[in-house]
Design goal:
Shape: globular
Low-confidence stretches: none
CATH superfamily: NAD(P)-binding Rossmann-like Domain
Distance between the termini: 13 Å
Mean pLDDT: 96
Order of helices and strands: EHEEEEEHHEHEH
CATH class: Alpha Beta
Number of domains: 1
Radius of gyration: 13 Å
Helix content: 25-40%
Strand content: 15-25%
Largest sheet: 6 strands, parallel
CATH topology: Rossmann fold
Length: about 120
């Protein structure tokens, strides 16, 4: 069983870490759910519009590529995905959201998805 992963801040820009995460997750056969504010697709999967707050079932991990100042309006949505864990990648760390998530029984990590994947820690 793979860990279905929502990539918040997904992008088609190959110079962004969110794109690299999508690439590496896909290469390791993880199911990705890219969610962002720009249209497009990554590795054959359409980027869902974050502004629509799409309903997505069965999310194991949310990996965050949105900075904390831009997370506030999406906090309730992120929690509503009911993930098992949230990975706050470098620059996305947010103690307020992490505390809210832990209160709901969601594991939180200040970590790097790319490093976790390369070290088989994902």
């Amino acid at each position: 069983m793979t860990k279905k992963t929502a990539i918040l801040g997904a992008t088609t820009n190959p110079n962004r870490y969110a794109f690299l995460a999508a690439e590496r997750l896909t290469a390791k056969n993880y199911e990705i759910v890219p969610i962002g504010i720009k249209k497009g697709e990554v590795f054959g999967v359409e980027i869902l519009n974050l502004r629509d707050k799409p309903v997505v079932e069965g999310i194991h991990t949310v990996t965050m590529y949105i900075g904390p100042k831009n997370q506030a309006e999406w906090e309730d949505y992120i929690i509503s995905l009911n993930p098992k864990r949230i990975i706050f990648n470098p620059g996305a760390e947010n103690s307020q959201l992490a505390n809210r998530a832990r209160e709901k029984g969601i594991e939180t990590l200040n970590a790097c998805t790319l490093v976790m994947l390369s070290n088989q820690l994902y």
